[in-house]
Recover the amino acids of this structure.
């Protein structure tokens, strides 16, 4: 699969969420931060983007801890985007 097609699929998953705030947050993160991620962080973001909003939201807000260190790094970046 071509990189552009993968990115388009990821964009669709990030901006077609059940929660509007997640649409906005993940879409902005994809545009601003995703291109700067390491390959491991990019993979972790894809894994997070595949989660249902009810699973992901507590991780984003910090009300649930993440045991995966790379996902935790990406979640910290997501929280930073959310604050701004």
């Amino acid at each position: 699969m071509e990189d552009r097609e993968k990115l388009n699929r990821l964009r669709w998953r990030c901006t077609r969420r059940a929660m509007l705030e997640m649409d906005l947050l993940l879409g902005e993160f994809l545009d601003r931060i995703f291109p700067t991620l390491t390959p491991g962080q990019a993979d972790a973001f894809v894994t997070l983007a595949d989660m249902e909003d009810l699973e992901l939201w507590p991780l984003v807000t910090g009300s649930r801890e993440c045991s995966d260190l790379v996902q935790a790094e990406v979640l910290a970046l997501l929280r930073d985007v959310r604050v701004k």
Q: What stands out?
A: The mean pLDDT is 94. DSSP finds five helices and no strands in the chain. Residues 44 and 68 are 9 Å apart (CA to CA). The helical segments are 3-15, 20-32, 39-49, 53-61, 69-83.
